[in-house]
């Protein structure tokens, strides 16, 4: 696997920490570790930073002066794309998909406030079910009409080029695992637009790591998500020139999605509050809270065995916590 062949910007100095979670392990049984990708570079960190290192390098190579992308009203991906644009001296335009009707508000806190602070050029809300590709193409055409040049980044940065960021994370994890003398038995990660899950799988396969990877879905039914992840793994492996992962290696569990994308669940609230109170680590309500709820559930069910070394990838997202305060604070769940 030769990632140095691909143009890359650097937004993080060195590796993110690979840390033990001793107090959580004592509560749950398995020996838990965490990969702190919430501490990646760019405003607020999180997994999109790794993808943007490759995507923005490509945008600059093409001579773009404007990044265009799409996300939900509290999108971490939009926040980080905007931060990369600010860092590079580019403009940034956002399409906001209202995945839960009525949830876009220009006054919302969390990531939405940060869009404003980082100087977003425009925000265009569209309804769930809109053709997002067409909406972004229209935005790119509007940029071109000004005599400028847009580079369109798909939702979540999840195309083969973006997924390289997580093939590189697999390489980083294996290097740390060897360096720290920590042999990992299983990796657990949130699975959304699929680039993180697919990129990790491609990297682990290329490195012949022999570590099973379990995705915890935040949006889609299991079969649909597994097909998405596998399709992206196939095209990412082709770009990288490495072996295609088996379909049987793709596991994306949907039991912790709850009523839908970004909608709070009791197990998410428990997971966010538990990690905060026993380890001092902030998860997020939409992705890592549900993924950690999955890890906790699998440990309680005995699927994760006592003493098994399990690495949880913390993909970030805590800047959205304040936008979900009522659901997180109150033990009786309220609509977001
Ligand atoms: C986007 C995101 C994910 C999911 O990653 P995908 O590559 O979209 O599957 C997980 N956690 C956080 C905090 C995210 O913002």
TrEMBL record:
What is an example of a GO molecular function annotated in this UniProt entry? Answer: D-cysteine desulfhydrase activity
Which keywords are on file for this protein? Lyase, Pyridoxal phosphate
Q: Tell whether Lyase is among the UniProt keywords.
A: yes
N6-(pyridoxal phosphate)lysine: which positions carry it? Answer: 48
Q: What class of enzyme is it?
A: lyase
According to its UniProt record, the EC number is 4.4.1.15
Judging by the UniProt lineage, the source's domain of life is: Bacteria
Q: Which Pfam families match?
A: PALP
Q: Which residues form the Tryptophan synthase beta chain-like PALP domain?
A: 13-316
What residues sit in the active site?
Answer: 75 (nucleophile)
Q: Spell out the InterPro entries in the cross-references.
A: ACCD_DCysDesulf (IPR027278), D-Cys_desShydrase (IPR005966), TrpB-like_PALP (IPR001926), TrpB-like_PALP_sf (IPR036052)
Cofactor needs: pyridoxal 5'-phosphate
Which NCBIfam families does this one have? Answer: ACC_deam_rel, PRK03910.1-4
Protein family (similarity comment): Belongs to the ACC deaminase/D-cysteine desulfhydrase family.
Record's PANTHER family? Answer: 1-AMINOCYCLOPROPANE-1-CARBOXYLATE DEAMINASE-RELATED (PTHR43780)
Can you name this protein?
D-cysteine desulfhydrase
User: What is the species of this protein?
Assistant: Glacieibacterium arshaanense
Give the source lineage, highest ranks first.
Bacteria, Pseudomonadati, Pseudomonadota, Alphaproteobacteria, Sphingomonadales
